[in-house]
Design a protein that fits this description.
479 residues; mainly alpha; globular
């Protein structure tokens, strides 16, 4: 299925979605941090680009490899608590969480990586509870570091899980057995460089996240509670309804855990209680009024594992084959949706990024004289990232924002190219163009009229309005 999704992404379009374009730009260089996001995903993307070239293949192969690892690690975690059949169901159930089963396929990066780290953390922790050993603590510390370097909301998951485990005596004994110090040591060593960077860039790293949460104070409490309820329902309800429909009364009648192992269920319950308390506190005390499903995904992706752990006897349920069929059906549906999404958008007459005529635009720019290696300066990051995959020898960036930062970005980019003895390409697309962008360009580079390109969108009817691009190609100055 992983290879099928990679092949589907390559077949659908050479254009890029939001997160893909972002990664294609950030991965041009290694750094200890990238704005509001930790660096690990971009480091991995840099490695894939170095091996495969900056391309849709490199983007897709990394993401779907991480998705496959997420399911594998959750299955390994579940296997510590239940028979193989139930462990597969516990892992595959995550497919029925829309934020992972579909949204992550459509366009996600950091959320995919942090969910993979969460699955690895559950596996490492459950292994420790079974067989405490120094290597196991080091493995747990490794996944903790990966989680924080993947996405900062991992800290909420880790904090809640640590408190829940320490509050239950058998879990606490396993967590603090000889060699426990390997976990914080490994995590601290791996996190130290980024932590030092974060101390010096905290406003930059936190501002965008706080803006996305839409902190409205006490006036936003009803809105926040509603958003939280909708997010929780969208995350867990599809799986819960389908699992209940397939197993029916089996949830009540199947054998439960042996008495001597029920302390694990206490850890699960207290973890969920702590997560619920933290989310409510964000609404009631901090005034957070917006929750995205992908933010909740790493916190709740193990709920199916917890449910099957409560009823390990479901592994022998005769109706379990129905649940397997449901998983296969939804996996097939999501693959078909991935294959047909650009075609469907075209038939609806509502083109998105994947309908942009990338190949035709590439040919048109070459015919206009663009040399393929001078810097590309685009009006949005998706266009810049897309062109980087077509001209891998050219550095690419986007210049956006308010007037003063935009003017500075344009000035610096064109001046740097000129000083390096290169030309530069300024380019925009009409469906993602900030008002006044070309006015600011003229103020920076002089009163030069941009050239226009009108190219038909892919998969749209011939009579549909074409994609409109504008560009200025400035060839390098001759000595």
């Amino acid at each position: 299925m992983t290879l099928a999704h990679v092949a589907a992404r390559l077949w659908v379009s050479p254009a890029l979605k939001w997160d893909e374009g972002e990664q294609m730009l950030w991965s041009q260089q290694l750094a200890w941090g990238y704005g509001a996001q930790p660096p690990l995903y971009t480091w991995l993307q840099w490695g894939f680009n170095a091996t495969l070239g900056p391309s849709v293949l490199a983007l897709s192969l990394l993401k779907h490899t991480l998705l496959a690892l997420t399911y594998l690690l959750m299955a390994l975690a579940a296997r510590q608590l239940m028979p193989p059949r139930a462990a597969v169901w516990a892992s595959a159930s995550m497919l029925l969480i829309p934020a992972l089963g579909w949204t992550s396929v459509r366009d996600q990066t950091h959320s995919v990586l942090v969910t993979c780290a969460v699955a690895g953390s559950w596996w490492a922790l459950l292994r420790l509870w079974r067989r405490p050993a120094p290597a196991g603590y080091a493995l747990l510390g490794f996944f903790v570091a990966l989680g924080v370097l993947a996405k900062y909301n991992y800290a909420l998951f880790a904090g809640a899980l640590l408190l829940a485990a320490l509050s239950v005596r058998p879990a606490r004994a396993a967590l603090l057995a000889p060699g426990w110090w390997w976990a914080p040591l490994v995590a601290a060593l791996l996190l130290l460089p980024h932590g030092l960077w974060l101390l010096g860039h905290w406003p930059e790293a936190s501002a965008e996240t706080l803006q996305k949460m839409q902190i409205d104070g006490h006036t936003g409490v009803p809105k926040g509670l509603g958003a939280l309820a909708r997010g929780l329902a969208a995350t867990l309800l599809p799986w819960a309804v389908l699992a209940l429909a397939c197993f029916g009364r089996g949830w009540r009648t199947a054998a439960s855990r042996p008495t001597h192992e029920r302390w694990m269920l206490s850890v699960f319950g207290r973890y969920l209680l702590l997560i619920a308390t933290a989310l409510l506190a964000m609404v009631l005390l901090a005034g957070v009024s917006h929750f995205k499903e992908r933010w909740l995904l790493p916190l709740l992706c193990a709920v199916p594992l917890m449910a099957f752990a409560c009823r390990p006897g479901l592994a022998k349920a005769c109706r379990g084959s129905w649940f397997t069929i449901v998983i296969v059906v939804f996996a097939t549906i999501f693959l078909l949706m991935a294959v047909g999404r650009a075609w469907y958008a075209g038939k609806q007459g509502k083109p998105d990024e994947l309908n942009h005529p990338v190949a035709a635009l590439t040919d048109a720019l070459r015919q206009a004289g663009y040399d393929g290696h001078s810097p590309i300066i685009a009006a949005d990051h998706m266009l810049a990232g897309m062109l980087r995959t077509r001209f891998p020898a050219a550095p690419a960036q986007s210049c956006t924002g308010a007037a003063a930062p935009l003017a500075q970005c344009l000035t610096d980019a064109t001046a740097h190219a000129t000083q390096a003895g290169q030309g530069w390409l300024l380019i925009s697309r009409a469906d993602k163009l900030e008002p006044g962008w070309w006015s600011m360009v003229r103020a920076v580079v002089g009163d030069r009229a941009p050239q226009s390109l009108r190219l038909p969108f892919v998969h749209l009817p011939a009579e549909a309005a074409p994609a409109h691009y504008q560009f200025i190609w400035h060839a390098r100055d001759r000595p």
